[in-house]
């Protein structure tokens, strides 16, 4: 049965961070629940709903940003104490708003994640995990990469404290005290953790995780190892997952999985069978979902899903029917309720308009005085710059608390702007002069009214690095702009992976010199994405990467004074050699560079590229034939006389054009990669073969794999 859900907007608070809204336990079965939310103005707001209106219970004074909000209390009792993380402090409030706790932790950074279980408090900064019991320090752990979330398995079920950290390097770290028990590899960087069914399932060991690339999974955390139960990919190419809850919204006696994503999608997954969950319903909001909860908020007896969005809107999807079946008396009652609501909204709007006029006049007067000081309005921008594995492109998502007027994008590295289906902004390109000021891209996105979220896609070229800058201008007065910068790294299309195929033919680059572990780590951070900025613990570290465009791989192992880089793509080794030697020269460090080139690796890379090259050449040929075939169709009327392959081109014309439009310069990129591979192969032999490139391009046009390999061998 498809759930019938109606949208209700209750209230707007300040900008909210991830997991900062909760529902307090109900006083009775099917009774309405109070909502508590913390925003980035530092205000904790608790309210209930009466006759469709938000009625405040308490509201705290503004202060530093609230990064997390959790409910707590003694084990096996209603969890109705409110705990908020502000900077490196934790504050506690009763459900009436009385502050009973102000705990200054020993963390030097702001709290990023928090979980509460009875008297146990679990806190995480960027890399540091701390466990406190009754505000006394118990355990400490330093993670190898950034911590995004934390939870603890229910103590009453597993009979021990088992914290689980969701870390940026695609790993869940299971702890015991201050020690790492084991690691669980997951398919993407985990951003959020939740107990399955709200209680960890029958065993108390089951946790659900959501990743930044939109994947969802459940794993069982036993005392010795993790057992994966199910995993759902992101076939619909939706946003990353920010929040998860379990609640029986369908009323079938089984709790559904509620998921909130950063592209505004709310999803309901139903467990029809005992195996994988099935997507039953989804609902799109216009901004990212920071928190999600299932409960009874608006009216007794009617369940709903409550979501808190980035800009602070608390929006419900309620099972209460909008148009009720009933007699004229009930209809009259509803209309009277609506009339009073409309009149109160009108009064509020009139008062706001008067207030705006008064403030505008005051600003005009103060700006014209001799002692006037111009004030730049502050606004929050929520941004995310991530590499998509599926199409080897970068997504830049910009979200502003108010409507966006325009976004100017500039880059000093060559980038292709790709089409995004969800993007309704009008884009205009400006001509760039790349020689004197290294300006390769200059484009302006003009947004439609009420657009608060903009998604852009760019594709970079490996070996060409620089900075992408986004100038964000919202629709506020006086006009102001924020600049956000994103690094395009030399090996920008590489993504971290858990393991690589060791049987492939590999080329090796070896570095030796008087450099520290921290120095070589900073060079690797400069070259490759998804490497933690903090120098890893220990004396040696190994990272594995995969090229999202070609599928080639890279292994980096380094310590103080030496580094080893292995790849099946000789161009990757060439880029690393050039960039690392340049970075060492900047610091006046003398490097001893040696390399071992495997001739077989070039043939292996060509075999990886060739199917992609063949497909793109065929696509380009088909697209070039479409106009001629359509003209023939118009003149002849009937195209049955055409060969089947030409008829299929006409039938699939729209899809072919759409695919070609989505991937501009794809064929040129592949030509460029093969040309670089050819030049790099002979560069390591000390031979300059740039004069033979035109002949190589002729062979590429013929698309003959054996001829191409023979040319590489004979040159």
Q: Can you tell me about this structure?
A:
It is a single chain. The termini are far apart. Strand 22 and strand 23 form a beta hairpin. The strands form ten sheets. The protein has a six-stranded antiparallel β-sheet with strand order 38-40-41-42-39-43, covered by helices on one side. Strands 33-34-31-36-37 form a five-stranded antiparallel β-sheet, with no helix packed on it. It has eleven helices and 43 strands. The model is unreliable at 324-332 (pLDDT under 50). It has four domains: 6-318, YVTN repeat-like/Quinoprotein amine dehydrogenase (Methylamine Dehydrogenase, Chain H), CATH 2.130.10; 386-488, no CATH class; 494-597, 2-Layer Sandwich (TATA-Binding Protein); 602-714, no CATH class. It has 715 residues and is an alpha+beta fold. Helix content is 24%, strand content 38%. Keywords: Coiled coil. Residues 335-369 form a coiled coil. Residues 21-319 form the BBS7 beta-propeller domain. Residues 377-486 form the BBS7 GAE domain. This is BBS7 protein.
Secondary-structure map with pairings?
Elements: E1 6-12, E2 21-23, E3 35-38, E4 44-50, E5 53-59, E6 66-72, E7 81-86, E8 89-93, E9 99-104, E10 113-117, E11 120-124, E12 128-133, E13 136-142, E14 147-152, H1 155-158, E15 163-167, E16 171-176, E17 179-185, E18 190-195, E19 206-211, E20 216-221, E21 226-232, E22 241-247, E23 256-261, E24 265-270, E25 278-284, E26 289-295, E27 304-309, E28 313-318, H2 328-368, E29 381-388, E30 393-400, E31 404-411, E32 415-418, E33 426-429, H3 434-437, E34 441-446, E35 453-460, E36 466-474, E37 482-488, E38 494-497, E39 507-513, H4 517-527, E40 540-547, E41 553-559, E42 562-567, H5 570-586, E43 591-596, H6 599-636, H7 644-651, H8 653-662, H9 666-683, H10 693-702, H11 705-714
Antiparallel strand pairs: 1-28, 2-3, 3-4, 4-5, 6-7, 7-8, 8-9, 10-11, 11-12, 12-13, 14-15, 15-16, 16-17, 18-19, 19-20, 20-21, 22-23, 23-24, 24-25, 26-27, 27-28, 29-30, 30-35, 31-34, 31-36, 32-35, 33-34, 36-37, 38-40, 39-42, 39-43, 40-41, 41-42
Domain BBS7 GAE: 377-486
Keywords: Coiled coil
Protein name: BBS7 protein
